[in-house]
Amino acid sequence: MKLFSEFELSSVLKTNLAANGFVETTPIQAQAITPALSGRDLIATAQTGTGKTLAFLVPLIERLMREPKPGIRAVVLSPTRELAMQIHETFQKIAPGSGLRAAVVVGGVPEKIQLHALRKGASVVIATPGRLVDFMDRKLARLGTAEIVVLDESDRMLDMGFLPTIRRILGETPIIRQTLLFSATLENSVRPLIQKYLTDPVRIEMGPVTKVAENVDLRFYEVEPNEKMALLETLLKQEPGSTLVFARTKHGTERLAKHLNRAGYNAGRIHGDRTQGQRNAALKSFQHGEFRILVATDVASRGIHVDGIAHVVNYDLPQVAEDFVHRVGRTARAGAKGTASTFGSRSERGKVREIEKTLSIRLPRTERVAAAR
After folding, report:
1. What is the distance between the alpha carbons of residues 44 and 331, in angstroms, rounded to a whole number?
2. Which of 1, 33, 182, 217 has its CA 20 to 30 A from that of 200?
């Protein structure tokens, strides 16, 4: 099945999908939507950028529309505020006319706005685990009527230490419910969650999940730390289009963005010390082309969906090999082509080899002199 119009969906949902340009399905959507529509539990893994958000939102909205009821009926858990807000943005595009409302429950956003959305009768809560439990503790959110729970980027949530929080949330939902687990990777740490909270799940895996997409042009530059800034400026002159630059630390992100702005580039920045308002503004400006460059820590390596990123630059190497896939996956999304350049010093050769071995890839070495001309 390659078209959304071929699924058994309401006319409202089909119209909204088509109006927003969602016509052809991605492979993960084609395989996940039918079992999810039937009410089956689901474990779905796929490379980042393959359309997992619609793969769970489409069946979620359709199922809730079929039998209107009061209360919170679906909970979507996300590891980060940015991803939660982008899920909500997609929901807002395809839910008009469905009679369903969604509330975003995350940290860093005025509580009053979130409470207002809940009290207006939200059927769907899109949340980060910590803030949702905080609302639960204060009796501001009750999950006893939830019929569907979605764990998005579940491996990332577990990496961030959310397992006890997720267990608490699932424990407050009915035993009989549908649970959809979506992830870019499926590590051993996720398995106890699957065994305890999912019933006879359908398993969908779209290719090796620790594999870089084939349409990404990988490049590696061996460069010493004091030469990286000059190389970055050279690449920015050579490579047109929007560029996402990954730095290791918050301080490094600040320093790099300020340098680029002084050099005449429009550069925004995202890291953990920025307020949610600042992070939202930077991401929106990058999405709309007001910033050509976004400099970020790994807070942006997963779940940030920005169309048309031409170039990803690993200014600093990622801490673990798997994060390389998530960083690089910000470009070449939905079948497009993209470039990913990685910087590493002579002393980091061992780390580069570890990335190559873990991911079964070869990072083509590009001559530093040729890059700087």
Report:
1. 21
2. 1
273 vs 350: which has the higher pLDDT: 350
Alpha helices in 95-221 (DSSP H): 111-119, 129-137, 154-159, 163-171, 191-197
Residue 305: phi, psi to the nearest 5? -100, 100
CATH code of 367's domain: 3.40.50.300
250 vs 319, more confident:
250
pLDDT of residue 366: 86
Indicate whether 202 and 231 sit together in one domain: no
Do 49 and 73 share a domain, yes or no?
Answer: yes
Residues 197 and 227 in one domain: no
* Domain around 335: 216-372
- Please name the residue that has the structure tokens 């925004």: 268
Residue of higher predicted confidence among 335 and 351: 351
Summarize the confidence of residues 155-174 as an average pLDDT: 88
Per-residue model confidence (pLDDT) at position 98: 95
Instruction: Please tell me the number of Cα atoms within 13 Å of 333 on its side-chain side.
Output: 22
Distance CA 314, CA 320 (A): 13
Same domain, 357 and 247: yes
Residue 31: which pLDDT band, with cuts at 50, 70 and 90? Answer: very high
* Distance separating alpha carbons of residues 241 and 356, to the nearest angstrom: 27
161 burial type by CB count under 10 A (0-12 exposed, 13-18 middle, 19+ buried): exposed
Residues 157 and 275 placed together within one structural domain of the fold: no
Structural domain count, the chain: 2
CA dihedral sign, ordered 277, 259, 303, 135: negative
